[in-house]
Each structure stands twice: as C-alpha cells, then as structure tokens.
Amino acid sequence: MQNNGADLTSNNDETDDLINEINVNNEEGEQKIENIEELKNQLEEEKEKAISQEKKIQYLLADFENLKKRTESDVQNKVNSITDDLILKFLSIYDDFIRARDALSKQDVNVDGLDAILKNMNSFLYGYGIRPIEALGEVFDPRLHEAISIKDDPSLDDNTVTAELRKGYILKDRVIRHSLVEISKKHKEMMN
Known about the structure:
This protein is an alpha+beta fold.
C-alpha cells in the first residue's frame, strides 16, 4: 500500500504541476489577449493616421493640380498678351501701308510694289490664324465692334454697321482689335 501513497503523492505533485502550468498558461494567455487588444488599438490608431495622411496627400495633390493649371493659364495669358501686343503693332504698320497705297492710287501713282508688300503681309496674318472681322452690313456686335458714330438711316434696321472706320481682327478665337464702326438708327418722329 505504500506504493499507493507514493503514487498519490506523485499524482498530487503532477496535478499541482499541471495546475501550475495551467495557471501559467492562463496568465500567459491573458497577457497575450491584452497584447492582442493593445495591438488592435494601435492598428486602429495607425489606420486613422494613414487615412488622415492620405487625405492630406489628396488635398496637396489637388492644390498642386490647381497651381499647375493656374500657372499654365498665367503663362498662356502672358504669351497671348505679348503676341497680341506684337500683332497690334504689326497691324498699325499694316494700316499705314493700306493708307499709303490708297493715297498713292488716288494720285494715279503705280502701287504694284505696295500691293505686293500687302499681299505678303496678308499671307503672314493668315499664316498665324489672324482673320479680319467682317463688319460692313452686319448687325452690331459689341464683342466684335466698337461703335464710334451713329447715322440716321430709315432704310436700315437699327444697329446695322454702315461704315467700317478701322478693320478689326481675330486671332484664333480672341478678338485682338475691335472694328471701329458707324451704326444705323431709324429716325423716329415723335407723334403729338
């Protein structure tokens, strides 16, 4: 029977060892659960930080795209301004050549040389997309014309261009010089 006592003591020791091991495992398990919960919380915090950073990056990209568009627009506007200024100066010289040709032709002077120069100038203008604005006989359009005088003419509709005092021009889709025009108004008598 002493064997039974030794077996019992041995079983008790094994049971105690198992209980201790279970307790240690439970403590380790509880510690692991706490660690997992802490890691989950850290992961959620990092996800929120990542979302916040992603939003900041999106805003920065949007700001960059807006700045890029604005810069491109500013550059294009500057180029257009310089181009328009250069063409307006050229048109002033072109107008002088036309006036010279008209004055000389009225004096019966040979203007073939001026006509050749004007033909080259016209080719230059058309080559760069510069087109004259048709005004004579058209209805006044403030986007294209600048009215500087009014003529009473009952035979024409109101705001018909009756004379073009200076030719206007369009460069591609922009008016670079308005046509200076005279427009008609019907004379209306006051009835008593």
